[in-house]
Inverse folding.
């Protein structure tokens, strides 16, 4: 069973790669959306908004916070709308794939 000290050390270990990838300036919700979208991505196909929203990383996040963070990630070039959809499907951009 992990204690808070162990979790704190893991968090510190994760901070380095996040900094190296340039995502350390994103909010925790934005990072979790990118992590979930990456795990859910099946290569080239779009990721359904509900799949991202229901991922375990994002369960405790308020709906309005989630959608604000998605919009910010689109505006920043991490995600893009898929298949001409303006909301319901997203694709990882080359910016994320190159990280």
């Amino acid at each position: 069973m992990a204690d808070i000290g162990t979790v704190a050390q893991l968090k510190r270990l994760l901070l380095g790669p996040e900094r190296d990838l340039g995502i350390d300036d994103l909010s925790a919700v934005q990072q979790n959306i990118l992590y979930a979208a990456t795990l859910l991505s099946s290569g080239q196909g779009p990721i359904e908004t509900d799949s991202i929203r229901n991922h375990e990383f994002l369960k405790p996040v308020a709906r309005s916070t989630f959608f604000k963070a998605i919009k910010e990630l689109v505006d920043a070039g991490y995600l893009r709308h898929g298949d001409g959809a303006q909301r319901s499907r997203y694709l990882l951009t080359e910016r994320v794939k190159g990280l």
